[in-house]
């Protein structure tokens, strides 16, 4: 069987599982996504991308944006400043959790992949004004994707902004303890915008292949991200990228990956390929059911695991 045929079989198998989950609705605009959509792009470090399924489906990055805001904050402020504001340990709690915020004085979030950590990291990104900071984040993603047309979804942004009581409470707590820089509402606004950046799985796989290639653009061989920051991002993806399912994912699939509540997953096989997936039906931990199943099948068949 060719790789295309294998992938198509696995897609059919994965689609049959989506009824077990549901589309995220705590951000009301996300509830409009079609639960059984499934699209995947595999972008090899050498060779051309392979795209199958609902590849025209446009989705918002949500938590996947946390990987790139972390990288940008590291490029802007360096490791010492970033890791004096946010830790390096997984929590085992859900991504919105407030539970462990008081454990590391003065109130340092455990890692940059949970909401509290990502809101903090957003506050560290360079820019004189919130607008400048937001434009720098968007320009960075456009640059990596090599696509100046990438934008954000105004409805999803407004919808999250209008309902984000939990993120707001995290932001005010972080400000109170002196971990968050700047004004809370301004930082939250930038955070909601970068979560609402939208793209297709083809564009997502292009971001992933740069990480798979240690920050080098496979087309031009230009170093778009310093390799030392790609290494940090990949490590967080392994330890915390799939929320509180990261341990199980490391055993079953064994590669760096990051998911978003839109049902998107960015994954990569170091040195080999970047992968972008969209499948909006989520399991109870907030990961794409079909996407997780596809990655498990691919990892088994093509020996992806790093371990
Ligand atoms: N914007 C979402 C939130 O803050 C991102 C969460 C996610 O994708 N897990 O709740």
From TrEMBL:
Residues involved in substrate binding: 63, 115, 160, 167, 191, 243, 261
Keyword Hydrolase: yes
Statement: the UniProt record of this protein carries the keyword Hydrolase: yes
Record EC number: 3.5.1.2
InterPro entries documented for this protein: Beta-lactam/transpept-like (IPR012338), Glutaminase (IPR015868)
Gene3D superfamilies the UniProt entry points to: DD-peptidase/beta-lactamase superfamily (3.40.710.10)
Keywords of this entry: Acetylation, Hydrolase
Catalytic reaction(s) noted: L-glutamine + H2O = L-glutamate + NH4(+)
Similarity-based family: Belongs to the glutaminase family.
Protein name: Glutaminase
Organism: Marinicrinis sediminis
């Amino acid at each position: 069987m060719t790789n295309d045929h294998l992938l198509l079989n696995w897609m059919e198998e994965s689609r049959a599982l989506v009824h077990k989950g549901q589309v995220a609705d705590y951000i009301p605009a996300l509830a409009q996504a079609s639960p059984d959509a499934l699209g995947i792009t595999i972008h090899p470090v050498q060779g051309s991308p392979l795209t199958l399924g609902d590849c025209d489906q446009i989705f918002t990055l949500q938590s996947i944006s946390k990987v790139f805001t972390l990288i940008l904050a590291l490029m802007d402020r360096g490791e010492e400043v970033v890791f004096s504001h946010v830790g390096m340990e997984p929590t085992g709690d859900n991504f919105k959790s407030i539970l462990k915020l008081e454990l590391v004085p003065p109130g340092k979030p455990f890692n940059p992949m949970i909401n509290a950590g990502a809101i903090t990291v957003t506050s560290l990104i360079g820019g004189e004004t919130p607008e400048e900071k937001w434009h720098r984040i968007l320009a960075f993603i456009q640059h990596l994707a090599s696509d100046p047309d990438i934008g954000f979804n105004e409805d999803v942004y407004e919808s999250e902004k209008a309902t984000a009581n939990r993120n707001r409470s995290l932001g005010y707590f972080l400000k109170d303890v002196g971990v968050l820089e700047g004004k809370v509402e301004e930082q939250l606004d930038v955070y909601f915008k970068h979560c609402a950046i939208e793209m297709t799985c083809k564009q997502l796989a292009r971001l992933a292949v740069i990480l798979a290639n240690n920050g080098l653009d496979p087309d031009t061989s230009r170093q778009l991200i310093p390799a030392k920051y790609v290494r940090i991002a990949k490590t967080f993806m392994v330890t915390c990228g799939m929320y509180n399912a990261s341990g199980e994912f490391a055993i079953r699939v064994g590669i760096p990956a990051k998911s978003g509540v839109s049902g998107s997953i960015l994954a990569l096989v170091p040195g080999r390929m970047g992968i972008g997936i969209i499948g909006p039906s989520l399991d109870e931990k907030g990961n794409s059911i079909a996407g997780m199943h596809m990655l498990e099948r691919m990892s088994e068949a093509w020996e992806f695991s790093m371990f």
